């Protein structure tokens, strides 16, 4: 992914786009052609086979593991250099360790909400906002 080529990037396995947090993010970001949905694993060349119509965002397949380990995720984040990262899938202790590593070594904002926490994604401000309530 080239620097500043995309406004927002969602990395999600195709099955995760059916429901839950990844689905909500996709629904919000799908109308903007500057956004990217990166599908890990192997699939169709444009990544959109089987996707519903009506989206304008770019959808691409990448040869990433859908279940990467902490070091694989760290290397991906280091390469992409985002301003913010939200970790939403995994066991508590490994997620906490990855969060600390990303903050200390890369100096980026990282959040790891627990199941049931509300996360507000503002595409206009290009950052993640956690409501006080």
UniProtKB/TrEMBL annotation:
<keyword id="KW-0378">Hydrolase</keyword>
<dbReference type="GO" id="GO:0005634">
    <property type="term" value="C:nucleus"/>
</dbReference>
<dbReference type="Pfam" id="PF10996">
    <property type="entry name" value="Beta-Casp"/>
</dbReference>
<dbReference type="InterPro" id="IPR036866">
    <property type="entry name" value="RibonucZ/Hydroxyglut_hydro"/>
</dbReference>
<dbReference type="GO" id="GO:0004521">
    <property type="term" value="F:RNA endonuclease activity"/>
</dbReference>
<feature type="domain" description="Zn-dependent metallo-hydrolase RNA specificity">
    <location>
        <begin position="56"/>
        <end position="112"/>
    </location>
</feature>
<dbReference type="InterPro" id="IPR011108">
    <property type="entry name" value="RMMBL"/>
</dbReference>
<dbReference type="InterPro" id="IPR022712">
    <property type="entry name" value="Beta_Casp"/>
</dbReference>
<protein>
    <recommendedName>
        <fullName>Zn-dependent metallo-hydrolase RNA specificity domain-containing protein</fullName>
    </recommendedName>
</protein>
<dbReference type="GO" id="GO:0016787">
    <property type="term" value="F:hydrolase activity"/>
</dbReference>
<dbReference type="InterPro" id="IPR050698">
    <property type="entry name" value="MBL"/>
</dbReference>
<dbReference type="Pfam" id="PF07521">
    <property type="entry name" value="RMMBL"/>
</dbReference>
<feature type="domain" description="Beta-Casp">
    <location>
        <begin position="5"/>
        <end position="42"/>
    </location>
</feature>
<dbReference type="GO" id="GO:0016180">
    <property type="term" value="P:snRNA processing"/>
</dbReference>
